[in-house]
Structure formats: structure tokens, C-alpha cells
Amino acid sequence: MFDLERWEEIFETIRKNKLRTFLTGLSVLSGIFILVVLLGIGQGIQNGIETQFQNDAENRISIWPGRTSVEYKGLNKDRRIQFKNRDYDHIVRKHEDHLQYKSSLYRIWSSMVSYKEESGNFRVEAVYPNFQFLENQDMVEGRYLNHNDLENYRKVAVIGNKVKNDLFGKTPAVGKSVEISGINFKVVGVFSDPGGEREESLVAVPITTGQRVFNGGDNIRNMSFTLPPSDNFDKALEASNNFTADIEKQLKETHFVAPEDNSAISINNSLKEAKRIYFMVSSIKIFFWFVGIATLLAGVVGVGNVMLIIVKERTKEIGIRKALGAKPLSIVGMILHEAIFITAIAGFLGLFLGMVLLDSIGPMVKSEFLEHPTVNFQVAVATVIILVFAGAIAGFFPAWKAARIKPIEALNDE
Amino acid sequence: MIKIENLHKSYQTGANSLHVLKGLNLNIKEGELVSIMGSSGSGKSTFLNILGILDEADEGKYLLDGVPIKNLSEKKAANYRNKFLGFIFQSFNLIGYKSAIDNVALPLYYQGMKRAERLDRAMQYLEKVGLADWATHLPNQLSGGQKQRIAIARALASDPKVLLADEPTGALDTKTSYEIMNLIQEINDEGKTILVVTHEEDIAEMTKRIVHLRDGVIIKDTPVQQKRALDYV
Ligand SMILES: Nc1ncnc2c1ncn2[C@@H]1O[C@H](COP(=O)(O)OP(=O)(O)OP(=O)(O)O)[C@@H](O)[C@H]1O
Ligand SMILES: [Mg+2]
Q: Is the CB of residue A47 less than 8 Å from the CB of residue A211?
């Protein structure tokens, strides 16, 4: 490898055989390039799916009411169910020790939110402080709603990024007053949400204040809970299933809903979803690895083929070199050295171009199912090394065969 | 320098076996200039290739400068080809992408000589064959005669004990042939042992001894009064 004379010989061969070098290099380069982009897209799809489902806490359990679908205890079907504060309070009291985050929600319908001249229609929801964690919201400025806000029926609000940008532009929002359906609320914080704009066009106010000033009485629209995370996924799933079964039974009883009625009360257990998503993500991962390995194999076969052609093309030259006293090992060394050198350079160039492409357009890609495609650098380097190595092995056999044939046979090769 | 005893060689083609060399015996001393003649297919090239360790005999003895050439490892064979033998082919067999001087220097590369020294030596041999000005040209920029001179310079570069030439003038016109023969005679004058395979009577007469092959045996082996090629150019 460090034989300077050999390097000179290789460079001379490469310089004088530009087309061959170019073609060999190009096949390796494009192979690695495609592989890198593919792996990047695979990662991008994975990212996309993960953010899709990371809008909210991943172990969130949401309960919301609907209409009954069967008659029960003398009550008509198609009856609308309305949750009350006491439904929520009851669950919280009963399961207090087992809950991680909890919040009920009262929604203020079609509310105009405005600040000075700017105004817009945003979702306004009256919630508990835990709502932040159920929604995976992060504070950008200020603070979230707190216990005191609820206790004292304070007219305070936290607003999503989108609301902030629409109403305030670049000026700070915390401390300012916004008008919600004609009532002034003081902005105490701005949050971001991994769910993006849709989830950030939200104004959250204390549930107590919301119910009081918007005439909500003790109505709530829905409630959400999380159970504490557990290392054991199956145990966590079992616990959440028990929990949902219990509150379903409880709510059906209080609201006179038939046990078999599935449309009156809906419960969404994210953990159940999560299992499906993990399966989906790992399937996609496996698929892309499969594609990647297939590409790599094709690359190895390609390099092997190129080597075969190169050796065939150089058979006569090998005969001449042998007639002049080249030892078989030096022939093999010459062919492999050149091949490894070219595949390595071309491979890393392909890697580089692929990474540049992913790096330059990757951050701009943000659609529903493809987000920020990137490739793990170590994985990419490893694939190049594997390709070079496997290519060398694939090339070794024809080279070795060529180096072993009688010089006179090699010389007679046309 | 070369001692051959009862040399046999057959070619296997499918089910058939073609017995080409049927027990050759030959002695060549140092400094001789021998031509090998015979009709096409009589086994001249086969014989020369065996002498050049490019091919192997099936049977018989071959001593090259006292060293038995038999069952050599690839490595040894390569070593002997490099140190003891210089081969000149009818079709030149230069490496197309290498310049004249790099072609000449190639045997020295396989001796492990450093590049600067290699090129220096190669240049000396190019001067010897009168092509110093063509050192950086590629083979396809050279005439047939020039290519053969380059090939001769390459064969000489490693200072071998024996020079083997298989129809070195076969691809050249008469005038160029004589120029090449003149060069070969000069090299022989310096003491190098040379074997030349040829079809042509006039070329054979420029050597010092003619060996006739027919049907795989030597039918005639006669010393000749050498004609100097220089008289004909
Ligand atoms: N590799 C081979 N396989 C099979 N037969 C061969 C092979 N090489 C040569 N022969 C046969 O061996 C015989 C001798 O061939 P060789 O090349 O030695 O002849 P030659 O005397 O050099 O002829 P020419 O003057 O035409 O060059 C020929 O009949 C040829 O067909
Ligand atoms: Mg012949």
C-alpha cells in the first residue's frame, strides 16, 4: 500500500486510461449516491411519521362524547351526551395516584381574537395547566397557565406561535392584552407545538375563567390523561387498557349509556396507536435497509463486473508484464490497488454529493410524510467501506486468475 | 549458455493431442547468434517460448546458464524471465498507454529499481537504439521499425543473459528489417547470446548459425558465414 513506486505506476495507469477510470468511478459514484439518497429518504419518511404522531404526548388517552346509538333505560337513542366538570373530577379523584398529566377542555366556539388592528379566528380552549404536556407544547416566551390562574379566575391566555405571529408580528406578545370575543385577556406566554401551524393557532385560557366568562357553566368538551411512562411497553399498555375500561364503564353508567353503545363515548388510547406506529416505522426502516443492502449488493456485483471487464481488457498487458518479469502477486496488487483507489475515491465522492444534496434540500423538505431526510454519516461511510472492500474481493478472483495464466496464453489474447 | 536435451511439447486441443516438439537437443554457447528456421507450424515459436519460460515443456531438460528450468514456482519463473531473458516479439507487444521510455523502464520496475534510476537507464538504452528523441512518444506515434527498436531496448534494459526474438522483422519491410538486424548484430558483437526465429533466408544468413526445424525435430544445424546487415542498408 505504501509502495511509492506502485502508486506512481497506478497514477500513470489512471492518467492514461481516463475513460476506463471515469466509467468505473461513475458506476461506483452513482451507486453510493443513490444509496445515500435512498437512506436519506427512508430516514425522512421515518421522521415524517414520527412527527405526525408526536403532536401530542405519545401515551395520551382522550375521551370525548358523541350521541347514543341505542335506546337504554327508557331514554331515546341519538341523544347527545354532555360531559360535566364532575365527570372529570370523579375520574381524577378515583385515579389520582395513577395519573401523570390530566386536563379537561372547554372550547369557546368561533371566537374572534384581536390585538389592536390585527385580528383572526383561532381556536380558543379553556384547559388545565397540564394541557401543555398533553399537547407537547414548548414555551417560546413567558410561562404557561398555572394553578393560581385557575384559582383566581384570572383572565390570562397563552397563545400559539401562529397566533403570536399573526397578531403581534415581531413585537413581543407577553404582557399585552388580546381581546377574545370582546373580553380582554393578558398574554402570559407563547408556545410552540411539534404539530406545527395547525396546533399553534390555538389560544389557551384557564378552564375556570373560560367556563365562567363564556357562559360554559360546568360543561366540558373532552378530557385527556396520561399514565406515567413505564420501561415495559406491554405493562404500560395493559395499565392504560385497564384505565380506559374503567372510565368507560364509569362514564356510561353516569350518562345512562348502554354498555354495548360504541358511539356515545369515544376513547382514544395513543399507546395502542403507538404500537402500530412503531411497527410501521420499523417496517419502513427494514424496507429501506433491504433496499439499501440490495443497492449495495448490486454495487458490489457492478464493481465485480467492471473488474472482470478490466482484467479481460488488460489480459494482453498482463501477459507482457509477466514476460518482463512481473510476479503474480504484483499483477494482482496492481489491479486491486487501482480498483480500490478508484472505488474509494468515487465512493466517497458519491457519498459527499449525496450528503450535500441531502444537506442542501433536506431541511427544506417538510411535508406530511417526508421530513428532513438525513443520513447517518457513520452508516454512509461504512457502506462505502463495505463497497470498496467487497468490490476488492469481487475483483480479486478475476485478477488472481489472470495473474496465474501462462504468459504465453495471456500474450495470445486479442 | 543454453542446453536442451530431449525436449518434448504437445498441445491438447479438445480430444486431440498435437505433438509439436519431438525430442529436441541443442547447445548454445555464450555469445552465439543463432537463427531458427523452419516452415510455418514446425514449432519454432513453441520452442522459443519454452526457452523464454513463457511456456513449459512436457518432457526433457533445459539448462539456462547452468540453472535447470523445471517446475519453477511462478515467482521464480518471473524472476528468471526478468533477470536472464529478454524477449522480442513479432508484434512488438509494447504497452499502448505507456511512453517509449516507460515501456523500456518496465522490466527495471519489476527489478525494484527506483524511478529516477530506471528512467536514466531506459534513456541509455533508447540512445543505444537511436530513439532518444522519441522517449516521450506513445507506441502508436511510432513506425513499425521504431516500435521494434523500443522493444529491443526494453529487452536489453534488464541486461539479460539471452535475447530471444520471434520473427523480429516479420512485420517490417526489407530495409527496416536490415536496420533491425544490424542492431541485433551490434548487440551480439558486444557479447550477448541471441536466438532469432525467422522465415527469411537473408535474415538467417545474418546470424552465425542456422538451426532447421521440421516436424518437431532439428534436421539441420549449420554454422554460417555471417553477412553484415550494414552492407545491405
Ligand atoms: N496454444 C496452442 N494450442 C494448440 N495448438 C497450438 C498452440 N500454439 C501452437 N499450436 C500449434 O502448434 C504448431 C506449432 O506452432 P508454432 O507457433 O510453434 O509454429 P511456428 O513454427 O512458430 O509457425 P509460424 O512460422 O507460422 O510462426 C502449430 O501446428 C500450431 O497450430
Ligand atoms: Mg511462430
A: no
- pLDDT tens for A129-184 read 999 999 989 999 999 999 999 999 999 999 999 999 999 999 999 999 999 998 99
Closest chain B residue to A322, measured at CA: B78
pLDDT value at A3 more than 80: no
List, for residues A92-137, the tens digit of each pLDDT value: 999 988 899 999 999 988 688 999 888 899 999 999 999 999 998 9
**First-residue to last-residue Cα distance in chain A:** 31
Three-state helix/strand/coil letters over chain B? CEEEEEEEEEEEECCEEEEEEEEEEEEECCCCEEEEECCCCCCHHHHHHHHCCCCCCCEEEEEECCEECCCCCHHHHHHHHHHHEEEECCCCCCCCCCCHHHHHHHHHHCCCCCHHHHHHHHHHHHHHCCCHHHCCCCHHHCCHHHHHHHHHHHHHHCCCCEEEEECCCCCCCHHHHHHHHHHHHHHHHCCCEEEEECCCHHHHCCCCEEEEEECCEEEEEEECCCCCHHHCC
Can you give the pTM of this predicted structure? 0.71
In the numeric block, which cell numbers belong to residue A143? 410561562
Smallest Cα distance from A319 to chain B, Å: 9
Q: Give how far B227 is from chain A: nearest CA, Å.
A: 31
Average pLDDT over residues B216-221: 94
Search chain B and give the residue with CA nearest A403.
B74
ipTM score over 0.90, yes or no: yes
Q: Do B78 and A317 touch (CB under 8 A)?
A: no
Domain ranges of chain A: 4-52+276-411, 60-265
Which of B89, B93, B111 is the best substitution to test chain A (most A C-beta atoms within 10 A)?
A: B93
Task: Please name the member of B49, B102, B106 whose beta carbon is closest to the beta carbon of A408.
Answer: B49
Instruction: Quote the pLDDT of residue A12.
Output: 81
d(CA B102, CA A317): 14
